[in-house]
Write a structure and sequence with these properties.
There is one protein chain. This protein is an alpha/beta fold. The chain contains four helices and seven strands; from the N terminus they run H-E-H-E-E-H-E-E-E-H-E. The chain has helices spanning 2-16, 31-46, 95-107, 150-153; strands spanning 22-27, 52-55, 83-91, 112-120, 132-136, 145-148, 157-160. The mean pLDDT is 94.
């Protein structure tokens, strides 16, 4: 997992020609610690602070219609005209990524939105492709990919069930 975070961080720096005007936003729940690690690695490599926030996509999902808006989003900076790197643990159908893009657009107008994922398991239902991938894990529809992170689970692990 550490190697994947480092590789993604280097790719982000290369594509964006540094970290100027860049911010990282993790999608709740496991995208947040992974995003924090990427933000910290970017800051370490470029000797600057890369802003970090967390995004709750629950109200924007197309598989649940709740009127309750107890959002847990914490983005303590302006995303307008920023290059935003959205971070999630696993991309599967692409629906969570679409919800995250909707949630971001509601908060402002970024210069660009890039997507980084720890695991790409395939089976897209929407035309969404991550810009940065830690590991491609081809799976069947019946399999499940679980990501565990030390910050939440006391262990770093990826399991296919």
């Amino acid at each position: 997992m550490n190697r994947a975070v480092a590789r993604i961080s280097y790719e982000i720096i290369e594509r964006n020609k540094g970290t100027e005007n860049l911010c990282v936003i993790g999608i709740l729940s496991r995208g947040v610690p992974i995003g924090r690690r990427i933000s910290d690695k970017l800051s370490e490599l470029e000797q600057t602070i890369v802003p970090f926030g967390s995004l709750d996509i629950t109200p924007y999902r197309d598989d649940s219609r709740t009127d309750v808006c107890d959002e847990k989003t914490d983005i303590p900076f302006d995303i307008n005209a920023k290059n935003v790197v959205l971070v999630d643990d696993v991309i599967f159908t692409g629906r969570s990524s679409r919800a995250a893009i909707d949630a971001l657009i509601k908060r402002g107008r970024p210069c660009s939105i890039q997507l980084a994922v720890l695991v790409d398991r395939g089976h897209r239902e929407l035309p969404i492709r991550p810009d940065y991938v830690g590991k491609n894990l081809p799976t069947s529809h019946s399999e499940e990919v679980q990501v565990f992170v030390k910050e939440l689970d006391d262990i770093d692990s990826v399991i296919i069930k």
